[in-house]
Amino acid sequence: MMKNIILITLLAGFGFNLNAQPLAPDFTVTDSDGVEHQLYQDYLNQGKTVVIDLFFTYCPPCIALAPTLEDFYESWGGGTGDVEFIGLSIMNDDFNSDCAQFKIDHDVSYPMVGIDGGAIPAVQPYYSGDWGPFEGVPTFVVIHPDGTVDFDPSNGVYDGPGVTGLLEEAIRETGARKPYHLTGTVTMPGGNAIGSFDLNIEGELYSPGQMLPGGLFELDILLRPDSTYEISAVKSGSYNEGLTTFDMIKIRKHVLGIDNFQEPWKYLAADANSSGGISTADLIQLTKLVLAVSDNLPNNDPWGFIKTDYLFASPANPYEEAYQGDARTYMF
What count of Cα atoms within 13 Å lies in the side-chain half-sphere of residue 20? Predict the structure, then answer.
């Protein structure tokens, strides 16, 4: 066929007063699984946000909050993305073995640290009042990648949705990206899949995983939840892929007014020189491709993409909308 035009559909799988205060003090702790955690080296210096959960294993509000907090932790990537949670016990009789049992009993997956893992020295600075009064547990400390501390953003709220709502706002303030699962379909106009391609998200190229039947794709990606992203599809390849003499006949009939195109994508596919129209100049360039005299279109890309649900204002004149408008781009 002519220059390839692809149809694409995307779906989404989807007050703090930080005055001049000291930065978060560094700490090194060993959690109940024997894993060492250094606040700055392992997290902040890597651009990550750290949420400290000050708790103890027999604290009733901590126990009640555990399931909601675990779901919230997973919604931010479960430690694989831009955010990590670390539970630090404030009690001298809470050992790593107690923390391990707490994790088992309440299905908690984020790291937890007892007295023998170094929790008390790590907790001690937050009793000082430098970031606000410590009034008991659970208390949360959200630490930005630059070391800035947002102390107790939940402000004494202990109900699950209230706590996670306030923590969500505090984490977003750090600039952390949240995991999103994008799904969509990319097909030829007839419904056939196109094989591999990339998604261009704000200038960065991402390759979806394995393509599924029907052109379905999936992509897991980190995005800032308060931002708007421009998403489009791109594909490299041969300019003459699928191009035949039969396409030349169709274009010639259109140019002569014998059999005009009806679908916008055909107008765009035949506009070989991106001039905003179809003429003998396009026929000449495409014929050179068919005859292997040329292997490219100087003013065009080998593949073009149109949103499946896009309605052109003028289907017989789709050029400006496709080349300069939003016919090819999703805002997410």
Answer: 0
| Burial class of 293 by CB neighbour count within 10 A (0 to 12, 13 to 18, 19+) | exposed
Which pTM was predicted?
0.81
Nearest to 48 by CA among 23, 76, 71, 75: 76
**What is the Cα–Cα distance from 323 to 327, expressed in whole angstroms?**
8
Residue 302 has pLDDT above 90, yes or no: no
Q: Is the dihedral of CA 98, 100, 106, 108 positive or negative?
A: positive
CB 239 within 8 A of CB 289: yes
Closest by CA position to 224, among listed 49, 86, 79, 69: 49
Each residue's pLDDT tens digit, 247-280: 889 999 999 999 999 999 999 999 999 999 999 9
CATH of 1-14+176-332, one of 3.40.50.1100, 3.40.50.620, 3.40.50.720, 1.10.1330.10: 1.10.1330.10
Question: Which ranges in the chain are annotated with CATH 1.10.1330.10?
Answer: 1-14+176-332
Upstream peptide bond of 138 is cis (omega within 30 degrees of 0): yes
Phi, psi (degrees; rounded to nearest 5) at 255: -60, -35
Q: What token pair was written down for 121?
A: 């020295």
Angstrom distance (rounded) from CA 242 to CA 305: 16
- Look up the CATH architecture of domain 28-152: 3-Layer(aba) Sandwich (3.40)
Q: Measured between alpha carbons, how far is 191 from 240 in angstroms, rounded to an integer?
A: 20
**178 touches 49 (CB < 8 A):** no
* CB neighbour list of residue 265: distance below 8 Å, 6 or more residues apart: 5, 7, 189, 306
